[in-house]
Specification:
Elements lengths: L8 H20 L3 H4 L2 E7 L5 E7 L6 H26 L7 E6 L5
Parallel strand pairs: 2-3
Antiparallel strand pairs: 1-2
């Protein structure tokens, strides 16, 4: 008998999204502002329609000015990222993605 809870589909897809987006940031995006980003977590709705992607830049020192640049770069690259996700993932419908800056703990 298994006593653990079942591994939800949304959690599996969330893990795959995190991995794929990290690969896109590392290998496929040319924007230097996004190369150093780390995907900290992906929160996916249970119906797989929306995904909140939290990213962090542990290299930068100034938080507020860098966040504005990173946010604009993410918005500019959102369609490219979604296109690459569609090519790399085997899923019928991709969720609507939105990016958030994960605040550093000091």
């Amino acid at each position: 008998m298994f006593s653990s809870k079942p591994y939800k589909r949304s959690q599996r897809v969330s893990d795959n999204l995190r991995r794929e987006i990290a690969n896109i940031f590392s290998y496929e995006i040319n924007d230097p502002r996004l190369k150093s980003l780390t995907v900290t977590k992906v929160l996916l709705s249970d119906d797989l329609s929306t995904a909140k992607i939290y990213v962090s830049d542990y290299i930068s020192k100034s938080i507020t000015e860098e966040n504005k640049e990173i946010t604009s770069a993410l918005e500019h690259s959102k369609s490219f990222i979604k296109k690459k996700l569609g090519q790399n993932m085997k899923i019928k419908k991709l969720p609507a993605i939105s990016f958030f800056i994960d605040q550093k703990e000091e």
